[in-house]
Amino acid sequence: MTASLSAEAPTAPAEVHLGPRLSPAGGAAITGADLSQPLTPALKRLILDALLAHHVVVVRDQALTKERQYAFTLNFGEIEEHVARHQDARYAIVHSVTNLGRDGNPTDALDTRGNYFWHTDKSYHAVPSLMTMLHAAELPPEGGDTEFANMALAYAALPEPMKQRIARLRAVHSWEASRLASGSRPASEAEKQERPPVDHPLVRTHPETGEKSLYIGTHAAHVLGWPEAEGRALLAELQRHATRPEFVYTHRWRPGDLVMWDNRCLLHRAVANYAMATHRRVLHRTVVRGTVPY
C-alpha cells in the first residue's frame, strides 16, 4: 500500500493497495478492498487521504447492492436526496444514472441530458455536494467514459491578471438555467420554487486543503451584479480554459468500478462515446452533502 497513514492509525489489510496517480490531472485506484463489508478505520483513512491527494478514487472489482452502497456512503456523511422524485422511500437516494428511456430501453433521446455537460454536483443548492459515488452496474462494450476536470490545476494556471479580476466575484447557479442550457426537459413551476437560484464564490477555497479552485460549470448561469451576457462570456472563457486536456482525467469504466470524487475541486461529465441507442449504461449513484462554499 503506497498511501501514508498516521502513526496511530491501524494498518490496512496487506491485500489492499493504492496504486499510482492515474493521470497528471488526478485519479488513483484501490484494489483488494471489499466495500460490501463494514469499513475499517484504516481503509476509510486510506480513501479519504487518496481523495484529497488525487480528487478521484476508483475502487476496483466491487459487487454492491444498492443497500450496501447506501451503507458504505454513510461512512462519509449525510446522503443527499436526488432532485427527481422516486417511489422507493428507503433507497430513493441510491438512484440510477442511465441511458434508458421511459420504456426501459436504451435511447439517445433522453429528456434529461445534464450529465453530458461539465458540472459540479448540486452547485445550485446553497449547500452543495461534497462527494459523489457511482457504481458500475451495467456498461456498454466500449465507451461511456466519465471525464473529470481539475479546477485547482486550472485556477493555478490562470494568468495573474485574471486571478485578480475574478478574486471577489460570485456566480449565480441555477438548476432551471442549467436544464435549459443542456437541452433537458424545462423545470416545472414547482421545481423552480423548490430550487431557486443561489450564488457562490467564483474562486472557491477547499475547506480541507486550503487550495483555491474555480467553481463553475453548466449550473453557473451568470456573474452576480454583472450584465448577464458579459457574465456568461466570462464563465464560458473560464470553462474553456479549465477543461483543456492537461487538466482532465478520463475514467474508462470497468465492470465493478466504484468511483468517488470531490465535487469541491472538480467538474465532471459523461461522454456519449458509445452506441447510446443500443447498449445499456446503468450506474448507481449516491451523493454526500457538503458545506457552504467560501
Overview of the structural elements:
The protein has helices at 41-54, 66-73, 151-156, 160-166, 175-181, 189-194, 228-242, and strands at residues 17-18, 28-31, 56-59, 95-98, 129-138, 146-150, 170-173, 198-201, 203-205, 212-214, 220-223, 248-251, 258-262, 266-270, 282-289. The chain contains seven helices and 15 strands. The strands form four sheets. A seven-stranded mixed β-sheet has the order 1-2-3-13-5-15-4, covered by helices on one side. A three-stranded antiparallel β-sheet has the order 12-6-14. By secondary structure, it is of the alpha+beta class. It has one domain (17-289): Double-stranded beta-helix, CATH 3.60.130.10. β2, α1 (41-54) and β3 form a beta-alpha-beta unit. It is globular.
Helix/strand/pairing class, anyone? Answer: alpha+beta
H-E string: EEHEHEEEHHEHHEEEEHEEEE
Number of DSSP strands? 15
Low-pLDDT residue spans: 1-10, 85-91
What Rg, in angstroms, do the CA atoms define? Answer: 19 Å
Report the portion of residues in β strands.
15-25%
Largest sheet: 7 strands, mixed
Broad CATH class:
Alpha Beta
Instruction: Report the average pLDDT across residues.
Output: 91
Total count of helical runs of at least 4 residues: 7
Q: What gross morphology would you assign?
A: globular
Q: Under the CATH scheme, which architecture would be assigned?
A: 4-Layer Sandwich
